[in-house]
Write a structure and sequence with these properties.
- This protein is α/β, with parallel strands linked by helices.
- Helix 1 (39-56) crosses helix 7 and helix 9 crosses helix 10.
- 55% of the residues are buried.
- The chain folds into two domains: 5-249 and 451-473, Aldehyde Dehydrogenase, Chain A, domain 1 (3-Layer(aba) Sandwich); 253-440, Aldehyde Dehydrogenase, Chain A, domain 2 (3-Layer(aba) Sandwich).
- 39% of the residues lie in helices and 21% in strands.
- The structure holds succinic acid.
- Succinic acid (SIN) binds next to loops.
Length: 475
């Protein structure tokens, strides 16, 4: 496997020869070493992306589309290999990793179809004096900062529409999971993406790397997925050059269960919303708001389902929850659980870290959690389900919206009209109504409030990587 920097279509050592050691979160073992890039490498990558983008913007949409479709085929042709890489560096169970590759590849297929449908408009000026021609050229060079929780899909959700729209790209993958990013760069090149268009430069020093990229005169946009805390810092920095941004930030999803819900379906959905990809997703159900009439029964059934979760190495047969990404993540989750217990929550299941090696935490269900408990206001990013009981619907909506985050929400009820009405009151960009998963390449992924700016996926996603130009025309 290639472990150098990928710049200008070539594999190169970093400018100062630094390395990043990649650890297996299931064992703590450092199993691979890759080149670490410097600010000079980031600048070189932006130069390369710019040079390649000038030609790519003039490639016919149909030709771009066919290359993207080939990327989908090539990634799916390497699904097993890529999934194994993800399990090794991220730790998620192999079935989830396979699912992630299918999800990641689908962004190429979807955007292959969108590449030929970037629409403009033509209108008469109301005065009748001229026509208003609107079209959507590419932004230019886009910097992408991607997270470790989906080592493949969070790259392709940005990369595929960016390429479809005619942009050049510089990717800074996370130092926890850079191998998948490097392999994807290799595979999309094999699929026909011209050299220089996609550059991958991992680094140990994210702040200096980002400064160099933001100050590069040809960079016009930053697309980031990660925490709200880091997003705010990047947004401030992007303001210096008035860069376009798309920000996919943190979540604090309420999972609402009404007493008329089908409880089997609600528990099944809860397990998906909470536990998919080892409970390390920003869409994860973070607070379970359960109507008093079914609160005890839901807690018992959820605890039973969580008890069946097999925690372990993602490669092992039957494992459905892998390790957390690093020891610090285990400390954070444990701190939130202990804080909730001190604040009066009862532990229905779990509640403790699992002895190493590896970064494991017990699947945990907490009942009787107070709406003001610290755990209800933090993004847990671990296998912990806090249950808050409600009686009054207006108060429940108030609690659900009592957060600066607004990425996802879930509503379970047997009454579809009530479900839609409550969904509309939840301040979140995505709602799962009687569904525990919202992610779909054909749907607009993104948040309200401090969960982000802009949307990824769907038809909207491609326009984020476009400018809007209007030409006042007389003929
Ligand atoms: C995320 O957690 O950032 C993405 C989740 C998803 O796409 O399903």
């Amino acid at each position: 496997m290639k472990t150098q920097l990928f710049i200008g279509g070539e594999w190169r050592d970093g400018a100062d020869g630094g390395v990043i050691e990649v650890a297996d979160p299931a064992t703590g073992e450092h199993f691979e070493e890759i080149a670490a890039g410097t600010p000079a490498d980031a600048r070189a990558a932006c130069d390369a992306a710019h040079d390649a983008q000038l030609a790519w913007a003039n490639v016919a949409p149909r030709a771009r589309s066919e290359i993207l479709r080939r990327c989908w085929e090539v990634l799916m042709g390497h699904q097993t290999e890529l999934a194994h890489l993800i399990v090794r560096e991220h730790g998620k169970p192999l079935a989830d990793a396979n699912g992630e590759i299918a999800y990641a590849a689908e962004f190429f297929r979807w955007n292959a179809e969108e590449a030929v449908r970037i629409r403009g408009t033509l209108a008469h000026a109301p005065s009748g004096a001229n026509r208003i021609v609107v079209h959507h050229p590419p932004v230019g060079v886009v910097v992408m900062i991607t997270p470790w929780n989906f080592p493949a899909a969070m790259i392709t959700r940005k990369l595929a529409p960016a390429l479809a729209a005619g942009n050049g790209v510089v990717i800074k993958p996370p130092k926890e999971t850079p191998l998948t990013a490097l392999r994807i760069a290799d595979l999309v090149t094999e699929a026909g993406v011209p050299g220089g268009l996609v550059n991958v430069v991992p680094t140990q020093d994210s702040a200096s790397w980002f400064d160099a990229a933001v100050d590069h005169p040809h960079v016009r946009m930053v697309s980031f997925t990660g925490s709200t805390e880091v997003g705010r810092v990047l947004l401030r920095r992007c303001a210096d050059r008035v860069l376009k941004t798309v920000m996919e930030l943190g979540g604090n999803a309420p999972f609402i269960v009404f007493d008329d819900a089908d409880l089997d379906a609600a528990v099944e959905g809860a397990m998906v919303a909470k536990m998919r990809h080892s409970a390390e997703t920003c869409t994860a159900a973070n607070r379970f708001l359960v109507q008093a009439g079914v609160a005890d029964e839901f807690a018992q059934r959820l605890a039973a389902a969580m008890r069946d979760v097999k925690v372990g190495n993602g490669f092992d047969e039957g494992v459905t929850c892998g390790p957390l990404i690093n020891p610090g993540a285990v400390d954070d989750v444990d701190g939130l659980v202990q804080g909730a217990v001190e604040a009066g929550a009862s532990v229905e299941l779990g509640g403790r870290r699992i002895d190493g090696p590896g970064n494991f935490y017990e699947p945990t269900v907490l009942a009787g959690v107070g709406a003001d408990s610290p755990i209800a206001h933090a993004e847990i990013f671990g296998p912990v389900a806090p249950i808050i009981t409600f009686d009054d619907v207006d108060r429940m909506v108030e609690i659900a919206n009592d957060t600066e985050m607004g990425l996802t929400g879930y509503v379970y009820t047997g009454d579809l009209a009530k479900g839609l009405a409550v969904s509309e009151r939840i301040q979140a960009g995505m709602i799962g109504l009687n569904r525990g998963a919202v992610s779909d390449p054909a749907a607009p992924f993104g948040g309200m409030k401090q969960s982000g700016l802009g949307r990824e996926g769907s038809t909207e996603g491609i326009y984020e990587f476009c400018e809007t130009q209007y030409i006042a025309t007389a003929w």
